[in-house]
Amino acid sequence: MIEYETAVGHLDADCFYVSAERVRDAFLRDKPVGVLGNQGACVIAKSYEMKAAGVATGVPIWEALVKCPDGIYVKRDFRWYEVLSRAMLELMRVVSPQVEYYSIDEFFFQASVPRGGSFQKLAESIRDLIWERVKVPVTVGIARTRTLAKLISDAAKPFGALAVLDREAETKLLADRPVTEITGIAGRRAKRLAVWNIATCLDLARADRRLVRSLLTASGETLWWELNGDPAQPIHTQRPAHKALSRGGSFGETTDDPTVLHAWLVRNLERLIEELEYHAVLAGRLTVWVSYKNGQVGVGQTSLTVPSDRFDMLLDAARPCLRNAWVPRVAATRMHLIAEHLTPRAEAPLGLFDRPDPRLETLARVKRAVNARHGRFVLRSAATLPLASIYKDVANGYDICDVRGKICF
Fold first, then answer.
1. What is the C-alpha separation between 348 and 376, in angstroms, rounded?
2. For the chain, which end, N or C, has fewer CB atoms within 10 Å of the first or last residue's CB respectively?
3. Is 1-152 in CATH node 2.130.10.10?
4. Cβ(133)–Cβ(151) below 8 Å
5. CATH top-level class of 245-402
6. 282 and 308 Cβ atoms separated by less than 8 Å
7. Is it the case that residue 353 has pLDDT exceeding 80?
8. Cβ-contact 88, 13 below 8 angstroms
9. What digits encode the pLDDT tens for the residues 18-38?
């Protein structure tokens, strides 16, 4: 019987959205390419060539054009990106018995080689397999824990393959990387650590565990164990149950028109209800979050008497939330609807006076059936008519949130 050694691997696609566009259009290779968001207002991904010109993710298109006038800018297409993402996922499930679909372009996996075998060769073979079959360049890192594996793949980019499993090599890697490169440490957390002269990953690994826990809570202590080579985060082969579901995003064009804001509320609510129905859960609390061009943020929140996924009940709950979040005469830039206190539909009790309305239930079923057969949002609330241009643009009919099964956004 063959004995195997195991470790944790991390695969991350290089400039995935740009790489995906290059798969179907070879003309884009070796050129500065930027992928634009929903309404084409900002750059959500860029090639290394465009990055070298000074374009950062999230910059408005007009700023990107100044920094990179020769760049090629394309509208994002998450349907195509999901096709390639799932192709990579299927290949990873062939080479590993445990694969975590972490994000649309990232996977954690169990790396196994015969005792005495080479994890380095395994990393190279997986990288080359994805390139050969999917034509997407990826970087693979293999280490003793998932936190280390991600740091290694980040260090090996682009199109790299690196296995680091001995302590001396780990120490060198951690000493060379700022603590902010660890997923989950940025901003306020980094400032807390800086007070204690913890600036690199190695500083954090060598810090007192109890101090790290006091500064970063239990999640920070988990990272401490991981940095020291003790696996503390499992590979999730299935997505854990959601604690919350959210839908929303940028408007593209700012607006202070209450009618348009209400239209966005309804659009995002219909998208949120799709997810509630898909996951067979009901919302017990609803939050409406709106950000404004002047930096203000408005929030409205309500708890439902009875958990629900019904459009009429959730809209009645969402309207006063929007009124509370609304700042009159100030241009709004984005909105998010968040459903919390989720209850499995099969376990949800009826309220004392809550009786199903057969007409509304039938209407909801017809709406789902028509949209499933003829296209998403073919039937939608008339309140969204002010957003006619959004619905005409096929790029807005689908977004990254709809790629189901992955762990994070």
1. 28
2. N
3. no
4. no
5. alpha beta
6. yes
7. no
8. yes
9. 999 999 999 999 999 999 986
